Fold this protein.
Amino acid sequence: MLNHTATSVVTIDRYIIEQERQHPEATGELSGILYDLALAAKMISSKVRRAGLADVLGATDHENVQGEVQQKLDVFANDTIVKAMDHSGRLCGMASEEEPDIIQIPDRFRCGKYCLLFDPLDGSSNIDVNVPVGTIFSVVQKITRGKHGEAEDFLQPGRRQVAAGYVIYGSSTMLVYTTGQGAHGFTLDPTIGEFLLSHPDIQMPDTGRYLSVNDSYEQYWDENVKSLMRRYRGLEGGGKPFNVRYVGSLVADFHRNLLGGGIFCYPANTKNPNGKLRLLYEANPLAFIVEQAGGLASDGRQSIMNVQPTELHQRTPLYIGSRSAVNAAVETLGRELVTV
Ligand code: AHM
Ligand code: MG
């Protein structure tokens, strides 16, 4: 843990460099990836901040003043990350929730030893109603020998991540990342365009305060999931009831629970037997963060970080949050299913 006094101003660049110095063997490539991601986050943040003005500022038919067709924000976010990252020589490829296949590094650029996986703008269906959205990212090291990243490189369990994080475009823009030395949060100061250390070494409360789940799916849950939700609500098992909070934007729900304690659940249901959320772009990076903050993430059977992915866009049920709340999920969901 780096020791900064509450009064010192620490930019994200400085923090990344100081963390890197603790590893004499580091080449600086991973730090470079994090700098580039922070830059992409600032560009996306600036665009998201003007989201409601798109129609006001753009010309008719979604053309902007330069005559370019105005892009949907999630496409903009996707392209911004790809363009910020593809030329650095640090990546051997990328995978995005917005794109069907691996994004190859163009031949004119050098290939590096890392793979970047990301959800460029999670919760973007909320953007029209001014609800926080986010970017989620994960970095793993290439394991195949060729120049370009192959499926095998991207389909690695979360446990092999070397860095992960998210950006929340909320009432302020925050970037939270980990390289396995704690989870650290930085708030964007828009007046100087810098991410400044605001939440060093985040520790998640061990007990839950908030429950985030979309219970309009209740009719499609099995009995164990229903029982678990009754337990969280204090209707079964005698525990203290959680407060229910559901934004419907994973980064926003996760971030609140990370700071305040609690659990986010997206259970399997009969309509979506693997839930909705994506293992590689959403569950794994947030699982790495939550574990670094002292919490847990499970698919109901095993740690999210131990799941061996088989497909790029694989979905997974997700129970992520405070240790005691996730343990309650594993305990309840592991019961033999009682059907009535
Ligand atoms: P997206 O990646 O298409 O934006 O979908 C993911 C979002 C999450 O942000 C959120 O937690 C979830 O979908 C909400 O789903 P639901 O509306 O089914 O509750
Ligand atoms: Mg998403």
User: Anything to note?
Assistant: The two ends are 51 Å apart (CA to CA). The CA atoms of residues 58 and 310 lie 42 Å apart. Residues 62-67 have pLDDT under 50 and may be disordered. The longest helix spans residues 29-49.
